[in-house]
Amino acid sequence: MATKLERVAAKARSNPKLRFTSLAHHITPESLCMNLNKIPSKTSPGVDGLTMEETKKGFRQWLEQTLTSIHRQAYKAPPVRRVWIPKPGKKEKRPLGVPCINDRALQRSVADVLNAIYEQDFLPCSMGGRSGIGAHNALSTFNEVVSGRKVSWVFEADLKNFFGSLDHGWLLRFVEHRVGDPRILNLIRRWLKAGVMETGDLHESEEGTPQGGPVSVILSNLYLHYVLDLWFERKVKPCLKGEAWLIRYVDDFVVCFQHRSDAERFMNVLPRRLGKFGLKLEPDKTRLVEFGRFAHRQKKRPETVYFLGFTHYCTRNRKGNFMVGRKTEKTRLWRSFEKLKALLRRIRHDPLHEQLAAINRRLQGHYAYYGMGGNFRSLCKLYRFVERYWRKMLSKRCRKGKVTWEKFNHLKRIMPLQRPKITISFWKMQLMSVL
């Protein structure tokens, strides 16, 4: 963090009620240039059609105009280009907003300023969209809470169309708790109202924030900080009979309870609380599950919990003590199968060393996220699938007929596939827990 932003963070930390009335001067040519260079060179262009190379050529002219318009509160935010990406395991697709590259650099600079303030306010239960805190921290925390706390019930929830349902009025009111600079507030308001361009038609934005813009991450996290996190910590927990723990990653969250009565009370009041701010629960992903070491003592086998791409289940370690087991969620594993099948079909006529490099990149990415302690068997399933399907693709391109396993194993000795690897051990998971 730059020195000036460190001072902002120190002030925000020392005075939780301080309202910053002068922040726009932290958006400098240096910060804009730095954030522009952080954007990948092959990034998709926005509605202006400018590539990264073209954007950098005209950056100096855009820079002067932009800084002037920010201080005059006259910046015109370009609409975002909407693209649709498939949802994992579903037929419907998720809308993704692609801002112009110049505008993306400006959003990153403003997000840096907001992060300096709100990182001091966010609670430990919030683990999405924050620097140095991600999904593995949320999973490790869930493991530690269920294993070491008095947990018998887990309420798992997901918000319906969260990014498209944010109320602009409430969001700006939340930002104004800490930000009093009209220039920053004007920028945020312009981005929220910029609209979405799809197939040449401009659609106005009355609610929500496009999923994909850099500033959308901090704004969405800020929204749930006030709507859910603070409310749960200050209003809900003091009224409960037993222990309760909230673990949230962006709009996916689980709440662990000691008593079923507390869980049911929370389930009754949560829809009303969310409805006040224009949010709804996704019925298919919302349920109460008896889960934990106390539930595991019963004769009936406890149900499983689905959280952040993993299926969590109750089991015991080699010493006979309770532990939370995990494996890759079935739909996520099948999605990985399908992606690798498509990749192998697409590259089957490429040189073998290029095929190997592409396959290993995909495997390394999978192991980096799903390689958590206890999930080795699921990693092996993917590895064996890749072995079989790669051999099948090589057989289809071979003029001499089928590639035998003997030939294929000889090829693997020369050009080895990336073998399954646990990247986050049980010991490391304990260190990553934040509650």
Topology:
Blueprint: H1 3-14, H2 29-38, H3 52-57, H4 59-71, E1 80-86, E2 93-98, H5 101-118, H6 135-148, E3 153-158, H7 162-165, H8 168-176, H9 182-192, E4 196-198, E5 201-203, H10 214-236, E6 244-249, E7 252-257, H11 260-276, E8 287-290, H12 293-296, E9 305-307, E10 310-316, E11 322-328, H13 330-347, H14 352-370, H15 376-397, H16 405-414, H17 426-432
Parallel strand pairs: 1-4
Antiparallel strand pairs: 1-2, 3-7, 3-8, 4-5, 6-7, 9-10, 10-11
Helix pairs in contact: 1-5, 2-5, 5-10, 6-17, 8-9, 8-10, 13-14, 13-15, 14-15
Walk me through what this model shows.
The protein has 435 residues and is an alpha+beta fold. Helices cover 50% and strands 13% of the residues. The chain has 17 helices and eleven strands. Strands 2-1-4-5 form a four-stranded mixed sheet, with no helix packed on it. Helix 6 packs across helix 17, helix 8 runs antiparallel to helix 9 and helix 8 crosses helix 10. It starts with a helix and ends with a helix. The mean pLDDT is 87.
Mean pLDDT: 87
The total count of helices amounts to 17
Describe the global form. globular
CA-to-CA gap between the ends?
25 Å
Low-confidence stretches: none
Backbone structural class: alpha+beta
CA radius of gyration: 24 Å
**Major sheet:** 4 strands, mixed
H/E element string? HHHHEEHHEHHHEEHEEHEHEEEHHHHH
Strand order, sheet with most strands: 2-1-4-5
Number of strands: 11
Query: Helicity range of the residues?
Result: 40-55%
The proportion of residues in beta strands is 5-15%
